[in-house]
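To fix ideas, we reproduce below a protein record of this kind.
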Amino acid sequence: MSAYAKCWGVILGAAMCVGGAWAQGGVDLTTAVVVAPGDLSPREQKAVDLLVNEVERRAKVRWNVVHEWPGEGALTVAVLPKRSVESFGGARIEAEGWDAQPEGYLLRTLPAKNTVEVIGADERGVLFGVGRLLRELRMEPERVTLAGALDIASAPAQALRGHQLGYRPKTNSYDAWDVPVWEQYIRDLAVFGTNAIEIMPPSTDDDADSPHFPLPQIEMMAHQSRIADELGLDVWIWYPAMEKDYSDPATVEAALKEWGEVFAKLPRIDAVFVPGGDPGHTQPKHMFALLEKETEVLHRTHPNAQMWMSPQSFTDEWEEEFFELMKAEPKWLSGIVFGPQNRCTFEELRARVPKQYPIRHYPDITHTVRCQFPVPEWDLAYALTEHREPINPRPTDYANIIRRFSEGTIGFIAYSEGCNDDVNKIVWSSLGWETEKPVVDVLREYSRYFIGPKFEEGFAQGLLALERNWRGPLLTNKSVFTTLAQFQTMEKAASSDDLLNWRFQQALYRAYYDAYVARRLSQETELEGRAMDLLRQADTIGAKTAINVARDILKDAEGDPVAPDLRARVFELGDALYKSIRMQLSKPLYQAIDSGRGANLDYIDVPLNNLEWLNARLDEILKTPSDEGQLRSLAEITNWTNPGPGGFYDDLGSIALPSHVVEWPIGEADFKGPAWKQDPEFRTTPLNGLNYNKPGWRMSWYTCAESRFDMPLVMKYEGLDPKRQYRVKVTYAGDRDVNVRLAAGKDLEIHGYMKKPLPTEPFAADLPLEATADGTLTLTFTQEPGGGSSGRGCQIAEVWVTPVN
């Protein structure tokens, strides 16, 4: 057998003749040579370097690059731009029938010519064609293969596919990355079709410094801009207008000077995006005046750069002012951004903004709650422990959201606070290129490229399983332990290099963390149930005895901790992630800026039952002088959720219990399936809100039913006794200090707009007889209309409707 014939093999087995190997569709490329024209542009050459370097990095195989075709029969990987097809490719290349589109590529295997060809429509097409080849390769130690024949002509569905990469203290990892880490990460994103990054200036809503910074912010900005430019990616700057008063000429002049100095230090800027809020608080007319002048400053050093803005966080009044200003069609403005905290829907924004202004999406892919796209049906135990910026692969959720928001935009640059959302970035980039691509195929490419071929299917399915871990009540979600077992199987099969791979570590961390929380929740729920049973016996055994025994039961979680092996492994993986990718998963251990910024090791042991609230209440009860008073107070605790005969109780934030909340207060009544799939922003669908910041609360107060902006939150009851009077009692919770109004029936006001009682305690009032005269009751909660910011307003934790005796 010739040396040439030996280089071809069937991926799964023994060597075959050349024709046979191609007939099976597989090819061994270990000994291939990369051939490319000698007149490639610097960016095209960068793409070739990326191909060779990534193959060497993953397979320990170094492909030689030549600029002339090797002799007949040599195994080649040809990389070239479309302009070189005739002059360089000649008869060795096949490009017939290819309709080259911007950024597109042609990727084919040519068995008869012993060639794999990558042809780019333009500079970016070469880069993304190389990226696609890398995603198709099976790279193992000292072996590089393709599993099958390729004939792919592809171009992106969305013109803009980017991610925000903010080097600042607030992030959970980015602030510790040095230049080589940034270069590798941006290359990784480009392999999956990312064509833009968004960086941040030194002045944002953040601390001035980080203990992790390897370089000052402006220097790292310049490196990020350079890295992107060398690859041919767009560079955006997210630049919030942070000063209090831009109607002041002195403030404006200072801002023009500051921004101009930043612009001048960056080698590439394609666009600047200024959010209307979150952060920022500038009235539209002053914002427009500022940005017109900032655009002039920008064009001094980057004459073709664009200026974009968003109407985020505007009140109703400011939003209307914004739309009036847009009617003048300002020439300095290039486009509008739709992001979190937009009062109007995307459809309304598109309808009211003049058509010549494109709209870019700014999706939040990094947060889990109190965000644009909260995790639906997320258990409180996860929310309290894993918190707001955990490692959060949500492939099917975001596939649904991408498809929901793709029409009418030019694409997206996603909001990120660190590498916790790495899987989500790849899902967005991949589906931004090919919107209807099955998400499991994206995960297979992710797993094959970043983890390795042997874990391709297992890791891809594992990422889907991690997403399912978060769906629905945790107490009944036994698949959490199956997910852990699957990852433990991969962990045992992993090499030492695999175990040092930060992406592998992230998935393991989540699998162990999820399982540990599940074990704790089961134990602490059972202990609270036993303690409450004891307190119900107070009439028989005495209040003090019942309290003391109940407290001993609740302490069992401290004296006999559950699953210490799982907890220890979580901490080991947290340490490994700090060493591998500088994830700061703890404030005291790794100097995270704040425990709430992804540092969820600090929350791993927070109580998952009513321990703290119960202990505080029991302390108060023991101070009651009379036995009768103690028993009354204990009865109040043990009957907290009992509305009595003929009554109703709703724990509105619980995902495990039914409630009387109307899912679709207005419209969409015919939609079949979970409402959040149709309404992932929860604009008309009540969602499960959360407040982290009240230690010692009842568990039922941490969560709430929540509505956004001016949407009402509606509850309906049937089967009431029309001859009896009822009383309503409401616990207002949540994190927003807004005025809320409660009405019954046909707008019978129970109370006008009022602040939530602080400290938290239920509000109670008798209902007018006419509110229930037909045997039904409607309760409608509304927040004071026209507000801005996040729009979170109606946040109702508990409601009792009870007959008045």
